[in-house]
């Protein structure tokens, strides 16, 4: 009896140890610092995509591309199962820039996700644009992604981009290795549950749940008093700056939209105009399908 009790206690201890180690606590500052150091190491050791070439590809490539995409998952997952599946295919994407004041490589993390085991990664148009054109004080040097398993890999090509739909698709150099990827699913309906794994303000791999709250089309300013129109879905799942480019997925872990923006609604009639609500806007998967053959 005592022997059985001892064996059971050891087994329980092992299970608890596995559970704790499966989701280690991390320092977000240390995570960002390691990302910067890894990007700097890649820049010094590997031939990377030049930002002038990336700029040309970004401006010129806007046609649908043919890829070997991942099939959509058909079995419903638990919330924990969704997190594991989506987190494994979600990346921290960042540009690496140098400034005139120090020798450190500066990073500005956002989100992205793989849709092909070959390293085809989706993020926002505005994310890639900000890395190629970071401003006069910074000199862009490369774009990298960091996977959930810790690997840091360079972006080797901009495949296509759509300013209208705020989407960009890039090829990551996986050195021939396969990466976890997500499938695309049909457009969700209002009221459907959705989940997001993203990096809001450097809270890396934050998990949130909500539902689709609206579907609409709205105009965005596009310079010189012009406008562009975009199909959108609104969700109640939380995200913030740094979440741009993350996958919005359904109960199967399939992509139904891509995080794009937030819109703060103020009270119209009051002097100090307090915030009433924040609308979380995503690009439906149907818009991403337009960029894929």
From TrEMBL:
InterPro entries: Peptidase_S1_PA (IPR009003), Peptidase_S1_PA_chymotrypsin (IPR043504)
Keywords from the named record: Hydrolase, Protease, Signal
GO biological process terms on file: proteolysis
Recorded GO MF terms: peptidase activity
Signal sequence, start to end: 1-22
Keyword flag NAD: no
Organism superkingdom: Bacteria
SUPFAM superfamilies xrefs: Trypsin-like serine proteases
Keyword Ribonucleoprotein belongs to the record: no
Listed name of the protein: Serine protease
């Amino acid at each position: 009896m005592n022997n059985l009790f001892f064996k059971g206690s050891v087994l329980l201890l092992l299970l608890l140890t596995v559970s704790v180690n499966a989701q280690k606590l991390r320092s977000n500052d240390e995570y960002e610092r390691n990302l910067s150091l890894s990007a700097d190491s890649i820049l010094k050791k590997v031939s990377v995509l030049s930002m002038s070439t990336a700029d040309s590809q970004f401006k010129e490539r806007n046609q649908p591309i043919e890829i070997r995409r991942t099939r959509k998952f058909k079995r419903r997952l638990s919330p924990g199962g969704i997190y594991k599946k989506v987190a494994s295919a979600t990346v921290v994407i960042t540009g690496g820039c140098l400034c005139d004041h120090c020798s450190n490589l500066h990073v500005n993390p956002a989100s992205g996700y793989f849709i092909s085991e070959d390293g085809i990664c989706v993020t926002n148009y505005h994310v890639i644009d900000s890395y190629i054109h970071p401003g006069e004080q910074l000199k862009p040097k490369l774009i990298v992604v960091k996977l959930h398993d810790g690997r840091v890999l360079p972006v080797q090509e901009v495949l296509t981009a759509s300013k209208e739909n705020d989407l960009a698709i890039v090829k990551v150099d996986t050195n021939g290795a396969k990466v976890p990827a997500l499938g695309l699913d049909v457009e969700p309906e209002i009221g459907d549950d959705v989940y997001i794994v993203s990096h809001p303000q450097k809270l890396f791999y934050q998990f949130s749940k909500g539902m689709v709250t609206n579907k609409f089309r709205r105009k965005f300013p596009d310079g010189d008093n012009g406008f562009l129109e975009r199909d959108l879905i609104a969700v109640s799942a939380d995200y913030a700056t740094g979440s741009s480019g993350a996958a919005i997925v359904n109960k199967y872990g399939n992509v139904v939209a891509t995080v794009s923006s937030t819109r703060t609604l103020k009270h119209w009639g009051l002097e100090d105009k307090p915030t009433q609500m924040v609308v979380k806007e995503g690009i439906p998967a149907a818009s991403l399908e337009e960029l894929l053959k």
